[in-house]
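Hypothesis: this fold can be encoded by more than one sequence.
Test: take the structure tokens below, design a sequence, compare later.
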């Protein structure tokens, strides 16, 4: 159940919480959508929505059947728009985020940024704290990379997204980036989710490689319940029995997440496939499935990349792809 208060009066909020407690249910207060909202979970509430609607200070009560509440489309019927410096996710536009998997040097990031911007990407991606499977793989330039990212962002005038892996780094990241990326491996790092919620920065929430759609949406619920509704969901492939591709890009999840939730959903066909030749076809399929954006890895010299070279496009191939995607977007009555 979601109870939207029409005025954040302490006494009225307390009465709602007390009445919920009387029914054996705990209410949680959230400040989002410019409102005070009380959220509660429990079957007993089904029979009581009319009662709560009559309490003083209550504007509207939603009985939501899914475990995720504030991210549910039952609560918010229109797709939410997440705006980052003039780039809208969740509108008719389909923003393309592009850049290297990892920042390797100022020159590498700058050259990539200039190329992807020229091709039509509107947000630069680049990791600097890399969650690598092996401790012996390149871990990223860390703090130095964050400074490079900030400098390149200013130099080329592009908003940037980068993965934050530790709650203690959120504050630093907020100064350097426009979107905080929660990587697939950290989708259920609840301390991190709470910290990015607190930051109020836009969040790109990747789906865990072995997470269900419900777990993914509940991870988003942590962020929104913590007071941050600027969330972009990102499908990046899940682990299946198929070894020929790095992951199995789950386009069911894209179409379904858009039915279940009002949050914009984007797709990462680079990690979803692990092979640069498959990035184009799956990027196109993602648009057809209703994706609200794409995030694509591009490297000036993929063969020399310190991470994820095999799935990275050259700037030339990225340029070709984005032109193909533009035509497809037109057919879909959308725009790149
Ligand atoms: C990345 O974007 O480089 C990354 C590590 O992604 P994921 O968390 O989806 O594996
Ligand atoms: Mn990568």
């Amino acid at each position: 159940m979601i109870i939207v208060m029409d005025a954040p009066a302490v006494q009225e909020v307390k009465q709602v919480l007390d009445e919920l407690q009387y029914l054996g249910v705990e209410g949680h207060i959230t400040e989002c959508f410019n409102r005070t909202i009380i959220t509660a979970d429990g079957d007993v509430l089904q029979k009581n929505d009319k009662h709560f609607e009559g309490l003083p200070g209550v504007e509207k009560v939603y009985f939501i059947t899914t475990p995720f509440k504030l991210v549910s489309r039952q609560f918010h019927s229109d797709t939410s728009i997440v705006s980052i410096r003039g780039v809208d996710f969740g509108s008719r536009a389909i923003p393309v985020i592009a850049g290297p998997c990892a920042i390797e040097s100022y020159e590498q990031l700058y050259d990539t940024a200039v190329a992807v911007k020229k091709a039509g990407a509107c947000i630069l991606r680049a990791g600097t704290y890399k969650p690598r499977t092996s401790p012996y793989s390149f871990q990223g330039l860390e703090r130095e990379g964050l400074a490079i990212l900030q400098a390149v962002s200013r130099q080329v005038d592009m908003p940037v997204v980068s993965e934050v892996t530790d709650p203690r780094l959120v504050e630093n990241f907020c100064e350097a980036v426009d979107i905080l990326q929660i990587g697939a491996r950290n989708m259920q790092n609840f301390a991190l989710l709470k910290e990015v919620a607190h930051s109020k920065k836009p969040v790109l929430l990747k789906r865990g490689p072995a997470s269900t759609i419900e777990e993914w949406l509940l991870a988003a619920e942590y962020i929104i319940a913590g007071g941050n509704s600027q969330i972009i969901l990102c499908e990046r492939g899940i682990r299946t029995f198929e070894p020929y591709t790095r992951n199995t890009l789950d386009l069911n999840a894209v179409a379904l997440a858009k039915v279940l939730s009002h949050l914009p959903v984007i797709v990462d066909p680079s990690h979803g496939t692990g092979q640069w030749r498959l990035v184009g076809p799956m990027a196109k399929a993602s648009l057809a499935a209703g994706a609200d954006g794409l995030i694509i890895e591009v490297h000036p010299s993929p063969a020399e990349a310190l991470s994820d070279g095999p799935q990275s496009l050259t700037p030339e191939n990225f340029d070709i792809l984005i032109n193909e995607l533009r035509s497809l977007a037109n057919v879909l009555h959308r725009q790149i």
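The pocket of phosphoenolpyruvate (ligand 1) is lined by residues 101, 127, 131, 183-185, 206, 236, 268, 271 (CB under 6 Å). The CA atoms of residues 244 and 273 lie 9 Å apart.
Hypothesis status: open.
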